[in-house]
Design brief:
Blueprint lengths: L4 E3 L6 E4 L3 E8 L11 E4 L4 H7 L22 E10 L6 E6 L2 E2 L1 E6 L2 E7 L5 E4 L7 E9 L2 H12 L32 E2 L3 E6 L2 E13 L2 E12 L8 E7 L2 E7 L5 E8 L16 E9 L2 E10 L4 E4 L2 E2 L2 E2 L2 E4 L2 E3 L1 E6 L11 H13 L4 E4 L8 H10 L2 E5 L13 H16 L5 E5 L4 H7 L2 H5 L6 H15 L4 E3 L19 E4 L1 H4 L13 E5 L7 H7 L10 H5 L6 H10 L8 H25 L6 E4 L22 H9 L3 E8 L2 E8 L5 E11 L4 E11 L3 E6 L2 H4 L7 E7 L2 E6 L13 E7 L3 E8 L3 E6 L9 E2 L4 E3 L4 E7 L15 E2 L2 H4 L4
Parallel strand pairs: 26-27, 26-33, 27-28, 28-29, 29-30, 31-32
Antiparallel strand pairs: 1-2, 2-13, 3-4, 3-5, 5-11, 6-10, 6-13, 7-12, 8-9, 8-11, 14-15, 15-18, 16-17, 16-19, 19-20, 21-24, 22-23, 24-25, 34-35, 35-38, 36-37, 36-39, 39-40, 41-42, 42-46, 43-45, 43-47, 44-46
Helix pairs in contact: 3-4, 5-8, 13-14
Length: 829
Amino acid sequence: MTTTPTRTAASALTVHELPAVWQLRAVGGPVPAHLEGLTIPAAVPGLVHTALLDADLVPDPFLDRNEHAVAWVGECAWEYSTSFDWEPDDHERHDLVFEGLDTVATVQLNGEVVAATRNQHRTYRVDVGDVLRPGANRLVVTFASPIREADRASLEIGYRPHTYVHPFNALRKAACNFGWDWGLEAASSGIWRPVRVEGWSRARASAVRPVVGVRGADGTVAVHVDVERSAAGVGVELEVVATVRGVEGTAAVPAGASSAVVELVVPDVELWWPRGRGDQPLHDLAVALRAEDALLAERHQRIGFRTVEVRMDPDEEGTGFQFLVNGEPLWVRGANWIPDDAFVTRVTRDRLAARLDQAATANINLLRIWGGGYFESDDFYDLCDERGFLVWQDFLFACASYAEEEPLWSEVEAEARDNVTRLMPHPSLALWNGNNENVWGHDEWGWEKRLQGRTWGLGYYLDLLPRVVAELDPVRAYTPASPWSGSPDLPANDPDHGSVHLWEHWNRVDYPTYRDVHARFVAEFGWQGPATWSTTTRAISDAPLTPESPGMAHHQKAQDGNDKLTDGLVAHLPLPDDVEDWHWAMSLNQALAVTVGIEHMRSESPRCSGSVVWQLNDCWPVTSWAAVDGDGRAKPLLYALKHVYEDALLTVQPRGDGLAAVAVNDAPAPWRGQARARRVRFDGTVLAEHAWEADVQPRDASTTALPPDVTRPDDPREELVVVDSCGRRAFWFFAEHRDSALAAADLEAVAERTAEGYRVVVTARGLVRDLALLVDKVDPEAVVDDMLVTLLPGEQATFEVRSRLDVDPARLVDPRVLRTSNQLVADWG
């Protein structure tokens, strides 16, 4: 293939794009007989697994138990190869640039080894000017087996405790690629980010770091530019020119120097705000590197003017954990983010946009990038900048102890420098965090004893990483760990101090006990539920399909996961025998559990300042804690988040020996108007009521104790409390679903065609609880605007369904599609 050199806009930099399709073959390991000696085309960027799938040579590991059928891939060594034409030009330097190699790789150009890599999370740049030939050039990248390399490296550095089977902590590779309690084991290899040859002369801009601030009404930008010089460029004086919003500044880079800072002051800037707090104005920052009259390089980045702090201030109750944006406290309505596909190269910008649209539907304002995956892509951060999502980015350490000796120490520093530099211009980036659960694991999971005095990563979290952040991104907040209490002398997961992870409730207790925890900030908690019905039945072909049939069991990766699902259900809802009823019950229970947790956390504002639910998304079809399943379909949990993360939340909570109505107002306007609490029988009869005037200031909360005649039922099985105020509503049921007198759903449902799909109108003649429209059973691509609605007798709800499929509208009101908790309770026993 002949590559066409291109020059970046008005720049002397020349980019030779390499072929998009390479050749791939296995070169070692337990290769199946039918693949021995076979060479196949492989897209670059791409992975071995995706190339094999594209060639139809392996079964889809997302289906049934096919994961086992492709396990050999991670035990093999693989070779990528390509040829490209190159003609000499007048540039002094020619660099081969790999933005991402996964993971242990040897790079040969024209038979000469030019690089050996051991870190998926770094960019590699190699001067190949002496190796390139006029005409045809041969480039070969050979990847060692990631499973065998992890095992070998763990022996070299010495045992360090970790979760799951493989010693992922011995390699700088995404931990979840080796399998997790929501992810399949699919340790892959490949050229997972772009590769190119760059030609340049005298100097290039090796890094551009805009340190953005706000001073009064003005925006400030300190543009830090690092330069790399060629041999001929060492004695050349350079100039850096930076421009944003019509403001231009310059700085000289004297001969022999390697950096400069351009200071800009931009008057009367509009501030960038997280979603729900304001707009997200973004501005183009242009940076040019010049020598005399020649333009050597040019960079463009978008920036936004805002300030973000994470304060961990001691107070009389412990240690807070408070996000402030532009000086204003923010109650974090967050979700954890994992890689959106087990094969990360399949995640497109459009796919990320769809997922962020779902996060917006759920009223989420922060996404935490979990440390067992990746430093997220530029596309991800660009979209968060545009949509106003704050991003909490973990450094890539998760659920394990990590050696601090060489060669890992230098690898960690290199990847941190690469990625802090790449991501710090984004206004959405709010927090760097050192690790996920490693300090907690060391202190409370028995790791300290097993380590026998070996290093375990604390030096990264308390020394190396904060130093890199302070140097390269000095205005960004950093925390050493999640959970983190503010000091290594305090227990890591103390609810009175800093951030906590709440997992005992799912693992061993039950979700009403969320109300017994009075945390300052909850960075992880969650409840499992199955993937949507259409995703489950696409991925699993068991006949019959049962909760424990082979495929279903395989798509449940959590230890004792199905037992925990059952134990977490039966105190609240009956356990159905019919598999579709089971699926609905578990989906509903997941939503109910998270609702209980978040309503409690928000009701304790400002002591509690945020919740980050585990998790928004999935990477394959699996029973998990996600709100969006592996096929990108919203589970009922997403709609529960939509309700509990609304700007203004009304909730009923236990307070002392009684109940209280808590109004949480995260909206910009005051919440003023009448509030009314009623004790009501299921048939709609009002037994007692109490009215008052609600007056809740913006970003504030108000608690109103309810009188005993409203909160003490005559018959807890058939009564509830309903609180209404200014179009908002809250319920309190005195009995669990299974212990209540909930009757069969008495309702009228009518569906009709609309321009966008369908409209379903439901009128309740009796109490209807947890009304949901599982539209994917009719059209797997359909989306409904709301779900989990409770109606009192005589009330009505309208659901809008987006669908391109032409079906009989009556299918949407079939009892297997139009679901309620009444269906699960009424005929039980």
